[in-house]
Structures are given as C-alpha cells and as structure tokens.
Amino acid sequence: xxxxxxxxxxxxxxxxxxxxxxxxxxxxxxxxxxxxxxxxxxxxxxxxxxxxxxxxxxxxxxxxxxxxxxxxxxxxxxxxxxxxxxxxxxxxxxxxxxxxxxxxxxxxxxxxxxxxxxxxxxxxxxxxxxxxxxxxxxxxxxxxxxxxxxxxxxxxxxxxxxxxxxxxxxxxxxxxxxxxxxxxxxxxxxxxxxxxxxxxxxxxxxxxxxxxxxxxxxxxxxxxxxxxxxxxxxxxxxxxxxxxxxxxxxxxxxxxxxxxxxxxxxxxxxxxxxxxxxxxxxxxxxxxxxxxxxxxxxxxxxxxxx
Length: 306
What we know:
With 306 residues, this protein is α/β, with parallel strands linked by helices. It has helices at 15-25, 53-56, 75-91, 103-111, 121-134, 136-146, 148-154, 158-171, 196-212, 215-225, 242-249, 255-279, 288-300; strands at 3-8, 30-35, 61-62, 95-100, 186-191. It folds into two domains: 3-113 and 181-300, P-loop containing nucleotide triphosphate hydrolases (Rossmann fold, 3-Layer(aba) Sandwich), CATH 3.40.50; 121-177, Histone, subunit A (Orthogonal Bundle), CATH 1.10.20. The chain is globular. The termini are close together.
C-alpha cells in the first residue's frame, strides 16, 4: 500500500506556503493535492485563500477550482477524487502530498468512508423541511438520544445532521454505526501549530487583507449564483466569513466590524481544528520548523510503501 504524507495545521498557519517550499526543495518531483471543502469551488478564491498561480511556484496542484458553486460536493466525492489523484501522481513517478485542514476529509482519507446506504430523496426532503420548521437543535437532540458521540461528530453541520437523521429514521442506525471501507492508501499525518498570539495576529492581518482584496464583491457574486437564505444552508455558504463579507457589500457592516466578527469566528474555528487534529487524527502538533524538517525527510524518500 502506498504511504502518502499529509501536511495539516489550523487555518491561517501558512501550510500551503510551507508545502510549496518543501515541494520545491525536494529531490524528487512533488505534486500537491488540496484537502479543503471550499477551495474545490470555482470563483471563491479570495475568501478561501486559494493559492494563486504565482504562489504555487510551478508546483502542480490538484482539486482546486474543480466544481461550480451550484454543485454539491461531499466527502465521498472528495475521497474518490483524492484517491484518483494520488494514483495518477504515483503512476507518473512523482510524490503526492496532501495539504489541508478540513478535518472530516482528512479523517476519511486516513480511516476510510462509512459504508452507509444511498440517500432516500423523499425522506431527505422531509427532514430538510423539518429542519426549517423545527430548527437544528431539534434534529441534533434526536441524534443525541440515539448516540451522543454521533451528535458531536456532526459539528453542527446542517447537511450532515439531515443525512444522519434521514439514516437514523430509515435504518435505526447513525452514520457512525456503519463499518468503514478500507482506505486506498496509508496516511502519515504531519501537523503543526503556532502560538496563540501569533495566530491571532496572522488571522487579523489575513482577514483585513482579504476584505480589502475584494472579498465583499466575491461574496456578492456568490449570492447572485446561490441564494444564501436557502434552507438547509447551501454548502458554499458554510464557508467561514462569506456572510459577513456579503454584509459589507450590501452596506450592512463596515469593513472593520466585519473583520472583528470574522476574526472571532476564525479563532474559534482554529481551536476546533487543533482539537480535531489531536483527538480525531491522532497527531501531535509540531512546531513549523519541526514539521518542515519531517516533511522534507518524507518527501526525499519518495512514494514509499507500507
């Protein structure tokens, strides 16, 4: 089985830049596969901090800008795309490097996908209508009554909650009850973090830069293609900060007020990511320098086998 390194860190840690530096310094050709639930969407480059062509420095990147914002893109589709990309990279003699911070995508690559049955469209629509009528908390309570651990795994994601309730009512089992399909390759997770004060500074600097670079206009473009008020919340509108950026464009928030709100939400998200990396991925965060050295060693070894 192929062993593939994963570089992960909470948002605003600079993992994309670190991955490119490591790829350029490696003695073998390296290609990067993005592990991000939102950089897959075309047109969301500013708000998702998608690496620009210049920032990629000629290193091939995969799974960026591959679907329209009107499409649904889920973890099962991502895993299929990522596995195909890994195999294609290895087949041409290069080394794949997975880079990103979307926890449930990373966990699915590491452990495999649940063998849950296909969705029932009619029941799914019924649960979606219930979400609108009764609210997220009522559906979460139903999941919690069946399995408190499953409620925690939902991370308050409406689409995941709807799917779990649909499955629970149809089969009496939550998604976590289903066995996992074995992963197609072995993953070695290399994780790092930054000090809290440095993270706070980086988040503030990045947020303000993104708002000044056209994020509000990008959010308005998204709203023209996908109604942000649709229930359940469209996947693309779950991306951090887009609603606040849209409020700036519509004159409901100042840039400063939006930045304050986005900064707070991002810091909270960073804490959740750090916890997920430790508890769900089983990785001990290193310093950036330690992660860079370990990544360099792994890339120098090529696409190894386990």
